[in-house]
Design a protein that fits this description.
By secondary structure, this protein is mainly alpha-helical. Helices cover 70% and strands 5% of the residues. A hairpin with a 5-residue loop joins strand 1 (4-9) and strand 2. The longest helix is centred in the N-terminal third of the chain and has 31 residues, at 60-90. It is globular and about 50 Å long.
């Protein structure tokens, strides 16, 4: 962990900066872990896309399928938070750290929207979420240690795979579930933007074996989270 700078404003309008220690950084990261797993992550304050969508009544089978799909998406967002946190812990460049932080904040919106929708549909999020978090944190930290261009490459490839994943869910989603569809469409837009930004920041193209390994891990998480 490295020290950094916190910028603030005094009551007289003057800008001030305070250095924060490795201990401060550790506390901040622990706070993010607890908030993510407890379902109280800090969001950007954006409106839930589902709130503006038509509320069509679903039958039991439709509601169950939508909830299962959104439980998978929620698990994916938990993993994404851990990936970004792991990468930010080991990223060397401050601009890369800020990019990871910005992406993580927007992913927190997704996390909140998915959890809310799963609960609305009468089900709970996956009990395996802590496992996904721990594993993804380790993967993210390893990616960060490999260097910033590889860390950004990992971010870009992760987002590309998430986009394809969301596409498949949009195809499976019941036609009547406009609320879930609105959430997934906004997530799709955000994930595409994250991937594009990572490439613009200098992301390296990952070797094919790593991409395939990421796909395998994703399949395991998807199948498990769909059921429990």
């Amino acid at each position: 962990l490295t020290s950094g700078i916190i910028t603030g404003t005094t009551t007289k309008g003057l800008t001030m900066q305070r250095a924060y220690s490795p201990a401060d950084t550790l506390i901040d990261h622990l706070d993010r872990v607890i908030r993510t797993l407890a379902g109280h992550a800090k969001t950007t304050g954006r409106s839930d896309p589902a709130d503006a969508a038509d509320d069509t009544e679903l039958n039991d089978d439709e509601a169950k399928l939508s909830a299962q799909l959104m439980r998978v998406n929620h698990a994916g967002e938990v993993a994404a938070q851990a990936l970004y946190q792991g990468q930010s812990l080991t990223a060397r460049n401050k601009e890369v750290q800020e990019q990871l932080k910005q992406a993580a904040e927007e992913e927190n919106d997704h996390l909140a929207w998915c959890k809310k929708r799963v609960n609305q549909l009468g089900q709970q999020t996956s009990i395996l979420d802590p496992l996904w978090y721990i594993g993804s944190l380790a993967i993210g930290a390893t990616a960060g240690l490999a260097g910033d261009k590889w860390s950004l490459g990992f971010l870009a490839e992760t987002e590309r795979q998430v986009v394809r994943h969301i596409d498949s869910h949009l195809d499976q989603l019941p036609d009547a579930d406009h609320k879930t569809r609105a959430i997934l469409e906004q997530m799709h837009k955000d994930e595409n933007q994250h991937a594009t930004t990572a490439v613009e920041q200098g992301a390296a193209e990952l070797p094919e074996p790593i991409k395939q390994g990421m796909q395998l891990v994703s399949k395991i998480m998807t199948k498990a989270s769909f059921r429990i």
